[in-house]
Structures are given as structure tokens and as C-alpha cells.
Amino acid sequence: MDLKEVALVDPVSHWYYQSKLFALDRAVGKFSPDWGSLVDVGAGSGFFSRSIADFAMGQQVICVDPNYGSERNEEAGKLRFVKNPPINGGDVYLFMDVLEHVADDVGLLTRYTNNAQPGAKIFITVPAFMSMWSAHDEYLEHFRRYRLSEVVDIASRAGLNVVHKRYLFGLVFPMAWFVRRFMGSGKSKSDLSSMNKYVNVILRSIVKLEHRFWWNPVFGVSAFVVAEVPN
């Protein structure tokens, strides 16, 4: 979770983060159910990796983010927050809304996956479609938004094999696109905010229902790709 949005919404209850977590959790369960070591790149608060880990089962999570004020360990050392990439590779990597923050997205992906274990799974989400560009992207200091085919190309150029691809949040895309194109202001700000609890529950239920389906190559607010390090 982006550190800039930590003060704006609670990911434990907000429909957007809970829905994205649902999609990620199902994908990890399908493509890498027996993982033991996870590297969360650009982890921010560590919301996603912390949420899918079961430290009682001996899983280890390394959250990497150069913006941390200091490094620390939690969960008896099984959860580490560090500023630099680990030397030893993991068998699961999360790039949750990270690649759009750097000029060289292929370089960042390669920097980490070069040390990954053969067969490691890479889970990538990025904001979709440049036509959705808004003050929200400027506030979060994005370089770009992506089409699904562009994320697949980046993964391939980084030497990875793509095993799954789709858009997320397709059901809310038309309204989100309209709002950003025609109703957004020029002021740099995040689109995420607290909302009425009933609206929040309805949106979360609708989007989680959509995320149960594995096929959406058409459109969505986010692009989601699962790649694999060659053996």
C-alpha cells in the first residue's frame, strides 16, 4: 500500500484494497500455494504481504521500500522491513502498484527477479489505461498507466514467462473513466477516501464477485499479471 494513502483510508475495510487483496490472495493460492519466502517490492505499509502470510506456518516476508525511515523486524523476525533488495531470492514476489513509480520499469523488475529462485512467481498490478490519467496519478507520482499487453511485454523483456493476465475492477471502470475524464479537477490529490459504510460494502461485494472470474482481457482500472521465473 502506498505510504501516501495510509493516512487517507483504512485498507482493512476500504472496498478497493479489500477487493484487490481478494484477487491477489486467490491468485497466490492458485499459482504458488506452498510458498515459503515472499519479497514485497515497494511494500509501503506491507498491507498485502502481511495479509496473505501465515507466519505460524513458517513463511517469511521481506518488505522492501527505500522510503522507510528505518529498518525493523516483526513476528519474531519472520516479517522484515528493509530499504534494499535482499541478497537471497524468494519464491514469491509482489509488485503491487510499483512499476508505474519508476522511469525504468523493466530495469526494476529485472533487478529483483534476477535473484529469484527458478520457478518463483511474480505478481504484478499496475494502474490501467493512459486515458484514465488524472490528478490521482500526479499525486502518487506515477510515470505512466498501462495496457495489459504492455505489462506482458515488460515481463517478457525481464526474462519472465507470463502464466496469467487480466484486468481488475472492470465493473467500475466505465464510471471511473467518466469521472476522471470529465469531472476531475486539476488539483493533485488521491481519489481514495473514506465513504459511507453501506456504499463501501456494496462496492466491495460487487468487485469481489467480479474477481472470482479469471477472464477479463477487455478493460479495468488495474492490470494484473502473474509471471514465472524460468527453471
Q: What does it look like?
A:
The protein is an alpha/beta fold. It has one domain: 3-Layer(aba) Sandwich (Rossmann fold), CATH 3.40.50. It is 31% helix and 19% strand. The chain is built from seven helices and eight strands. It has an eight-stranded mixed beta sheet with strand order 3-4-2-1-5-6-8-7, with helices on both faces. Strand 1 (37-41), helix 2 (47-52) and strand 2 form a beta-alpha-beta unit. Helix 1 runs parallel beside helix 7 (197-211). It is globular and about 45 Å long.
Largest sheet: 8 strands, mixed
The CATH superfamily name is Vaccinia Virus protein VP39
CATH topology: Rossmann fold
* Shape descriptor: globular
Class by SSE composition: alpha/beta
Order of helices and strands: HEHEEEEHEHHEHHE
Tally of separate helices: 7
Instruction: Tell me the domain tally.
Output: 1
Q: Estimate the mean pLDDT confidence.
A: 89
Output the strand order for the largest sheet.
3-4-2-1-5-6-8-7
Topology diagram in text:
Layout lengths: L14 H17 L5 E5 L5 H6 L7 E5 L7 E3 L4 E4 L9 E5 L8 H9 L7 E7 L7 H5 L8 H10 L3 E8 L4 H10 L14 H15 L10 E7 L3
Parallel strand pairs: 1-2, 1-5, 2-4, 5-6
Antiparallel strand pairs: 3-4, 6-8, 7-8
Helix pairs in contact: 1-7
List keywords for this structure.
231 residues, alpha/beta, eight-stranded mixed β-sheet
Summarize, please.
With 231 residues, the protein is α/β, with parallel strands linked by helices. It contains seven helices and eight strands; from the N terminus they run αβαββββαβααβααβ.
